[in-house]
TrEMBL record:
Keywords: Transferase. It comes from the Bacteria. This is Glycosyl transferases group 1. GO terms for molecular function: glycosyltransferase activity. PANTHER family: GLYCOSYL TRANSFERASE GROUP 1 (PTHR12526:SF600), GLYCOSYLTRANSFERASE (PTHR12526). CDD domains: GT4_PimA-like (cd03801). The keyword Protein biosynthesis does not apply. Coiled coil: none annotated. It comes from Sphingomonas dokdonensis.
């Protein structure tokens, strides 16, 4: 079987939320079929020989279009910016060439931006929206003012219409959680997993901290993460005496870097996030806007850390009561302080979280539904 895999960001290296998901899906499929990849790449992409060995053809195209140009194209054509930002004739040409060269039996499109490249004559099409982006922009509009509010509302409306039209014509529209899938009729969930061998506290060396350490991990130019750490540093941390807050993740914005001080560390990109997780007395995920399954929460649970998360950050995860949920600043401060004052209880909570992740979120179990969707049952040998 030949599968064409389309991705808005090449899955290499698998070191951030979307790339972790797309990489593990691609790896799963490549063990059962011949997979051809067409993907955009960012500046930090690194495609190794080992990665290419998973694939038949591998076409990666740098994404060079500016947001200003994408917005201008969107306004001129009546399309969502999310689509014009990823509209590229080079991708269209690459897709057409692969379809002509290979007997493509199925297409797996990762992220809604790539739906515009779905070939018309392939019998099986899987559209992995991951999250419902139109709902995200609708939420952004609630906090915006003036022209930006109008732009966010426009994006939500146009993108929502596009998502619904795509869902009606593909074989299976997928989302990262049941809650996300419920937002688009006819969709189903394909949940994220976690590599519990890699994310094992026994395999990691903790960084040193002289004070009780609270850790947040994530891509630090992503707006929900920026808003979360800014709120936490300003509203929650002052309520927790002697604690230190570490913001761990690449590309921190100027606003995030400005949070650094005596009680806050902003690391920027680190070689291995596991050392920070292993050192954490508590991991927090205070996101107010969170779609689907949060990898940062799964990673902390797998590392047997006690987690305090917002309702939205925990919503897509079957945590079975093994993490603490908090709302306002006082809720967070009380939950974190209670864990810091009870190391044995915190350790027990972290252990229970890891056991839950092992039971529920191994990648093999999470991706098995793809075998039925695509008729893939026998492992093939990758050479």
């Amino acid at each position: 079987m030949d599968i064409l895999f389309l991705a808005h960001r090449a899955p290499f290296p698998p070191d951030r939320g979307d790339r972790i998901r797309s990489y593990n899906i691609l790896k799963h499929l490549s063990g059962r079929a011949r997979v051809h990849l067409v993907a955009f790449v960012d500046d930090d992409a690194a495609v190794t020989d080992e990665d290419r060995a998973l694939l038949g053809e591998c076409v990666v195209i740098p994404r060079t279009k500016s947001q200003v140009r994408a917005a201008a194209e969107a306004l001129a054509t009546g399309r969502p910016v999310s689509l014009t930002a990823f509209a590229d004739r080079r991708v269209t040409a690459a897709v057409n060439a692969i379809v002509q060269r290979h007997p493509i039996d199925a297409v797996y499109a990762f992220s809604g931006q790539m739906a515009q490249y779905l070939p018309a004559d392939v019998p099986l099409t899987i559209m992995d929206f991951v999250d419902l982006d139109s709902a995200k922009f609708d939420a952004y509009a609630d906090d915006a003012i003036g022209p930006m509010r109008w732009m966010m509302k426009r994006e939500a409306r146009l993108l929502g219409a596009f998502e619904r039209s795509v869902a009606r014509r593909v074989t299976a529209p997928l989302f990262v959680s049941a809650a996300e899938a419920a937002l688009l009729p006819g969709s189903r969930a394909l949940e994220n997993g976690i590599d519990t061998v890699r994310y094992d506290p026994q395999r990691s060396t903790p960084v040193h901290s002289a004070h009780p350490l609270i850790v947040f991990t994530g891509q630090m130019d992503y707006r929900p993460n920026v808003d979360a750490v800014t709120w936490f540093a300003r509203s929650v941390l002052p309520l927790i005496p002697r604690a230190h807050f570490a913001i761990v993740g690449r590309a921190p914005t100027a606003g995030v870097r400005a949070l650094a001080g005596q009680d806050v560390t902003v690391t920027g990109e680190v070689a291995d996030v596991r050392g920070w997780l292993a050192a954490a007395d508590v991991v927090v995920a205070p996101l107010q806007l969170a779609r689907g399954v949060q990898n940062k929460v799964l990673e902390a649970m797998a590392m047997a850390r006690p987690v305090v998360a917002s309702g939205p950050a925990a919503e897509g995860i079957d945590h079975a009561g093994t993490i603490r949920i908090a709302g306002d600043a006082r809720d967070y401060a009380n939950a974190i302080t209670a864990l810091l004052n009870d190391p044995a209880g915190a350790a027990a909570l972290g252990h229970a979280a890891r056991e839950q992740v092992i039971r529920r979120y191994g990648w093999t179990a999470r991706l098995t539904p793809l075998d039925d969707l695509l008729g893939l049952h026998a492992e093939r040998q990758v050479v």
